[in-house]
């Protein structure tokens, strides 16, 4: 995958190879959550294998579809998937709210998968960067 990453970001590949869009990228033994479900473990998904609703406001449902049948049953619909324009702070609020419920009930999933995509490779545009706005 590391070898293919620069090709995608340079727009030299038509598909995004890393999430089931290219059959050769599928793990032969299944995903971690597939094997955990087969072993009877409890799972909770925050942001993997989801399609986001366009322009959903923070606090509203973020997910229009879950592309994995195992994750579809255990996905938090208020946690937005990969979207570089959506702040990780909003994602963290959703997770912390659910974590507080786990602490109250004592019933936490054995496996939690979480996607945090905002702090990624592209630099933020100056208009959206709080640090750069303060300098003006």
List keywords for this structure.
alpha+beta, 136 residues, 5 helices, two-stranded antiparallel sheet, single chain
Written overview of the protein:
The protein is an alpha+beta fold and 136 residues long. The strands form 2 sheets. A two-stranded parallel sheet has the order 1-4. It has a two-stranded antiparallel sheet with strand order 2-3. It is flat, with a radius of gyration of 17 Å.
Protein topology:
Layout: H1 5-9, H2 32-38, E1 43-46, E2 50-52, E3 63-66, H3 69-72, H4 88-105, E4 111-114, H5 130-135
Parallel strand pairs: 1-4
Antiparallel strand pairs: 2-3
Overall helicity: 25-40%
Write down the Rg: 17 Å
- SS-derived structural category: alpha+beta
N-to-C series of helices and strands: HHEEEHHEH
Amino- and carboxy-terminal Cα gap: 40 Å
In one word, what is the shape?
flat
Low-pLDDT parts are: none
Largest sheet: 2 strands, parallel
Average the pLDDT over all residues and give the rounded result: 83
DSSP summary, beta strand count: 4
How many helices does DSSP assign?
A: 5
What fraction of the residues are assigned to beta strands by DSSP?
A: 5-15%
Strand adjacency order, main sheet: 1-4
């Amino acid at each position: 995958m590391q070898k293919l990453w620069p090709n995608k970001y340079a727009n030299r590949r038509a598909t995004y190879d890393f999430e089931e869009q290219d059959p050769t990228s599928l793990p032969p033994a299944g995903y971690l959550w597939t094997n955990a479900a087969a072993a009877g473990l409890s799972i909770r998904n925050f942001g993997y294998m989801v399609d986001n609703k366009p322009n959903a406001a923070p606090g509203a449902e973020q997910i229009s579809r879950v592309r994995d049948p195992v994750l579809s049953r255990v996905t938090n619909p208020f946690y937005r998937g990969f979207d570089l324009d959506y702040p990780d702070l909003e994602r963290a609020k959703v997770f912390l709210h659910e974590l507080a419920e786990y602490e109250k009930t004592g019933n936490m999933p054995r496996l939690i998968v979480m996607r945090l995509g905002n702090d990624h490779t592209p630099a933020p545009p100056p208009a959206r960067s709080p640090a750069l706005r303060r300098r003006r």
